[in-house]
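Worked example

This section walks through a single chain of length 254. The input is the sequence exactly as stored; nothing has been trimmed or padded.
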Amino acid sequence: MFTGYSAVLVNHRAAVIKGHMPWHRIVDEGLSNMNSKILVALAATLALSACTTMNPYTGESQMSNTAGGTLIGAGGGALAGALVGAAVGGDPRVGALIGAGVGGLTGAAIGDYMDDQEAELRAQLQGTGVSVTRVGQNIVLNMPSNITFATDQSTVQPSFNSTLVSVALVLKKFDKSIVDVYGHTDDQGDDAYNLSLSQRRAVSVATILANQGIDQRRFYIEGKGESSPIASNATEPGRAQNRRVEIQIAPING
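Given that input, the structure is written out below as tokens.
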């Protein structure tokens, strides 16, 4: 489990928080009332921000990884960094981590750093069924549900634990990056149930990663349910592709 600090997440499908609440208001309320319903409901999740990107399958806009949530750090430096990050419109995690003394990357060093991280991930994940895709300066790991979870379950299969540990070793080594963990389902069954299942699966994966000694402030976790397909839900092969957990890794620009 994630411990040692509280996190505030704005769920973009309003499954947890009803209605829109500006980021600065969330921080204000979190600081003034650490026992608020928001903090209690979301203490097991970490926060990230999200920007609008284009879904390659649907052609529709969707939330991704640059605005929409924040982490309240345990230390004064981390908290100050988070506030600065939000004030300038960036990912609050970056500000929190830099405020806590984690250096960022600049210029050509960003590409070199992510190249090295990608190469190590590919070496560790060869033959595991997990795909590694480079998207600009980011890295996306796609973990199909047939190798990660039993049907309708959110506990990671024991046979997949070693794969996640291998991922964690690379993430721990390359600590100048932030990590988004997204759970996805197909469109079969109830929307609310699929959203809940995707959230629980994302938390399960992120928990195993964090338990390997990775700084929890680097994480953002979200269940997207059936909202972000990468293939058609009209066929079983397509639905199988949509049932997945994605890990998106981005450099800390500083």
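What to look for: The chain has nine helices and nine strands.
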